[in-house]
Design brief:
single chain; 112 residues; mainly alpha
Length: 112
Amino acid sequence: MADTADTADTRTPAQIEADIRRRRESLAETLDEIGVRVHPKTIVGDAKARVASNIDHTLGRAYVEVNRAVTDVRARFVGEDGAPRLERVVPVALVVVGVVGLLALGTRRRKG
């Protein structure tokens, strides 16, 4: 069994009142912080900030990927000196002209 002398409070009433006052103030601050955190405007603001951050991150990654793709395509069709690589440009141009021609022919047949 514990000795009652070990658990005796040696503080004066003024010290006890001061401790109670400090704890009440601390508790009031904590409750105010909780109130701000759970306020609907705070929750909505935090959600908006997270969404905006995710969108910025996604758009940044998309920009990098598109930039990389454009650089890769350019490297395939333009030489280091900046001149077009005709051995690659001409076949692609012929395919594009062929596809456009087929589409035009298909549209013409539907009308007629």
